[in-house]
Amino acid sequence: MAREHLALHRWICLSLLLFVHAAHCFYLPGVAPQDFQNGNELKVKVNKLTSTKTQLPYSYYSLPYCHPEKIVDSAENLGEVLRGDRIENSPYVFKMREPQVCNIVCRQTLSAKTAKEFKEKIDDEYRVNMILDNLPLVVPIRRPDQENSIVYQHGFHVGLRGQYVGSKEEKHFIHNHLAFTVKFHKDPVTELSRIVGFEVKPFSVKHEYDGQWNEKSTHLKTCDPQAKRTVINSESPQEVEDKKEIIFTYDVEFQESDVKWASRWDTYLLMADDQIHWFSIVNSLMIVLFLSGMVAMIMLRTLYRDISKYNQLETQEEAQEETGWKLVHGDVFRPPSNSDLLCIYVGTGVQFFGMILVTMIFAVLGFLSPSNRGGLMTAMLVVWVFMGIFAGYSSSRLYKMFKGTEWQKITLKTAVTFPATVFTVFFILNAIIWGQKSSGAVPFGTMFALVFLWFGISVPLIFVGSYVGFRKPAIEDPVKTNKIPRQIPEQAWYMNPAFSILIGGILPFAVQRGLPLVVEVVFDFRFLSTLPFPLCCLLFLYKA
Fold first, then answer.
1. Phi and psi torsions of 433, nearest 5°
2. 3-state SS of the chain: helix, strand, coil percent to 5?
3. Which candidate, 17, 151, 328, 427, has a CA 20 to 30 Å from the CA of 100?
4. Which GO terms describe its biological process (predicted)?
5. 287-325, pLDDT tens digit by residue?
6. Is the pTM of this model over 0.85?
7. Within 10 A of 349 (CB to CB), how many other CB atoms are there?
8. Contact of 376 with 359, CB cutoff 8 Å
């Protein structure tokens, strides 16, 4: 009996093993974790200079910063190029878990031209952006009056403006000493480390040295590597003027962290309560819901009153009399005067909706995380192109409903009208940005790639969708449309189009309560990738 039970157990175990499958995991390109041993080389990359005042990015080496022997550009995806990212190597090289104190990068003597360039960037509040192990450099800011006492800003300022004690003349000072902090999470078994944080505290220091200049072996009085004396403050800041000598230095500190690699972006995405004005968002949404509900109630009461009136008709003559909604039933489905334009707008709107829906789905699944730099813009472009088949289908269906026969013409208009308008504006703005020598100017190779996506993929897909849609039976109107349009009686003064537009704008005007937040976040380099924020942005667009 025991043997039978043992045999039965074996068969059950073997049967269960049949349902066991090997699990496979994968990482998106460029976002896989990297393990570092003690002493491994960590290469810091530099990115564009950005400003909230001008919105024009510039290459890091557009300013006379220290540079390596050979500047190498990193491979970038389509989204990174369109964002103006210019990721390059830098002379900043660390070694894993080996602190460094007062390392000399280089010495630069400013000319009148380079001093002017630094001053302009300081006046425009430009920030320097760096990357280590795909993590952006941030500046921690302590706010003791907030629940989250530390918040992060993307990149550090090129410099600042200030006055010497006892003087009213404003001077420009450059941040030439960087105190880096690299946070890592150590595996207790393998002793390997993963980088989970990259922070910096910038200082402006007028360095002094003993004897002759001997490149990186020069002994600086302002900080001593042997004594491990780092820069604590900027009592003697480095001024930006013609013929001024600037010595660029940096410190590196390594801190062990309990944060795991999978959660390293959580700290970057942490926002102070005052940075997300939830009251403003909720208040704006409540106004929209209230006004929309009020309009819906008025429409429902009007419709209910008309239906009740129809049900109470006593004679056949009264039943045949057209009142209320019956007055417009024979004209409401009449094709508009610019039916082609309506078909184009509907097709483009369907394409937009499909792009937003698919992009949001990918974002929820985690494919468009901040670690996948440029992934959001690349995904939106690719999805927009492939949504062209639905744009062609919807526009041709509506066009056939309006008794149109030249489906090729409406298809071509749908494929060209909106993209051509956007591309024309884009080309003009790109030419202006190129004239400013900004890194935000899109190269001609990328522009050809965009044109290929447009004419090589989007346009054919729109024709395919339009062909399929036009072969479908035409959508039938629920009521017969009168051949002769009903004459519109003279309207009251408050039905004037100008007045109606003014009154109708009250509802979308509520968006102004939340719009400043959206603009502030977009142009102030905030980290907001959580789902509620983009959903609120979509609601703002919807109610507008």
1. -65, -40
2. 45, 20, 35
3. 151
4. protein localization to membrane
5. 778 878 888 898 888 877 777 766 665 555 555 555 566
6. no
7. 14
8. yes
